[in-house]
Amino acid sequence: MPTDNRVSTVLARRLGGELLRLRDAAGLTQPQAAQVLSATAAKIAKMERGWVPFRDPDIVALCKLYDVGDEAVVRRLLSLAKLDRERRKAKGWWQQTPIVGGLGEYIAMEEVAMRIRTWQPALIPGLLQTPEYIRALGVTSNWSHPDEIEALVTTRIKRQARLWDDEPLEFHAVLWEAALRNEVGDGEVMRGQLDHLVRMAELPHVHVQVLPFGPGRHHGVKSSFNIVSFAEPGALDVGYAEAIGSTLWAEGAEANEAYREAFDRVSRLSLAPHDSLVLIEAISKGM
Question: Alpha carbon of 17 to those of 5, 23, 47, 135, 194: distances in Å?
Fold first, then answer.
């Protein structure tokens, strides 16, 4: 995966889109924005499309020009710019792991995220999976060679290290009850997985909720998705969803608001964390 400064990254596109929104709100053109930076309109266009890394003085100057009075907004933009620069320079372990494939961009963002919220209707989230569960998934997927399956296990376990950092990732997972009853592997694998899920949910920065079967629990959200956050809650989120053979990034404010609303909806319909763990334990005992 390219890591130089001549690529468009998701983080940079998210930041560029925010600057474009602020410029439009101020009623200014790209040439007018370029003038304050002693640059060309082409540079502003590249910035707004996420093709170049952002310098802090440029962001501060543009925010002043756009009459952004909220210092918290400026700090969020500067924070995202710093993350993008670090992301471009990073020589992450995932870059040397061919099996990562199209997940490389997501893993790079996961490495610098502060918070991830995920909705999973069918499977346990990857960051909470046991090695045995991962292997069983590999067997039932397109991974046919044992070495490929073990590489998949190693990759996913490395990603889980974010939950044990000095500044651990805050992780909030909402699972449909089907994900708990969908037997991946055999009963022993699932019991181990559900017991591990309970132990992980006891960590202060891991929150697990279950949306149970039953009347009034229709959620209307069929596909899984993640919301990746890079600053305080609600600031510059990026939505991510996987489809067959492709991935979808929601980089605009409106699209991300739709993801947040969907997540809030399934979270409200779900059991409280304590009651969720009681249900998980009951299902585990019945396996």
Answer: 18, 10, 9, 40, 40
For 124, how many CA atoms within 13 A lie in the half-sphere containing its CB? 30
8 Å CB contact between 252 and 24: no
pLDDT tens digits for range 180-213: 999 998 899 999 999 999 999 999 999 999 999 9
Q: Sorting pLDDT into bands at 50, 70 and 90, what band is 232?
A: low
Residues near 239 by beta carbon (within 8 Å), at least 6 away in sequence:
225, 226, 227, 228, 248, 249, 250, 255, 256, 258, 259
Q: How far is CA 111 from the centre of its chain?
A: 10
Q: Which two tokens stand for residue 140?
A: 């039932």
Domains of the chain, earliest start first:
10-89 (1.10.260.40), 93-286 (3.30.870)
CA–CA gap between residue 190 and residue 284 (Å, rounded): 7
Q: Please give the share of the chain, as a percent, with pLDDT higher than 90.
A: 49
Separation between Cα atoms, residue 174 and residue 279, nearest integer Å = 13
Q: What residue type is 114 in one-letter code? A: M
